[in-house]
Design goal:
mainly alpha
């Protein structure tokens, strides 16, 4: 049983739940480093949700015996070109969700990718320094908003439900 592909997906979904619980406790606590704890749990949750997605991709790829079934990145399996070479309804649904940045899966992939980008310098206001006003406008639109715990819990529940639904269809009766 421990060698079955679904065990990794289940494990990562469970770990994401543990990280979310620790995040909730960090928000409620009054520790000096509460803000750092919240950020650490936010990143841990994203890490485990991505791992669960990769595990689900491995389950599907393993069931259909796809050539890239041991890919180390979910994006390799969630590529439209790889889908055209070996179509499967489950993978097609995941590709559709991943390509649309408005869906929970598109947002999860984008948030996970943000973890690997270097920090950005704060934007400086543009203008002539000799005629500077007392109040200067600075655009803050480039910074992505921090993800809320409820958002990531929603992604976890959506991924869990998707995995359960796919497993029902992938079962050989």
């Amino acid at each position: 049983m421990a060698g079955e592909l679904y065990t990794r997906t289940n494990q990562k979904i469970f770990y994401a739940g543990l990280a979310l619980e620790s995040w909730r406790k960090a928000e409620e606590g009054r520790a000096m480093n509460a803000q750092a704890l919240v950020q650490a749990e936010r990143e841990a949750t994203l890490f485990h949700l991505y791992g669960a997605l990769l595990g689900l991709c491995h389950e599907i790829a393993g069931f259909y015996r796809l050539p890239n079934s041991s890919a180390a990145r979910a994006e390799v399996l969630l590529d439209r070109q790889s889908l055209s070479g070996a179509p499967s309804p489950e993978l097609a649904e995941l590709v559709e969700l991943a390509e649309n940045r408005q869906t929970w899966l598109g947002q999860l992939l984008a948030a996970h990718a943000e973890l690997f980008k270097p920090p950005r310098q704060p934007r400086e206001p543009k203008g002539d320094p000799s005629t500077s006003a007392l109040i200067e406008a600075v655009s803050l639109g480039d910074e992505p908003p921090l993800l809320e715990r409820e958002t990531l819990e929603g992604w976890r529940q959506a991924l869990k439900a998707l995995a359960q639904r796919f497993r029902e269809g992938l079962s050989e009766w």
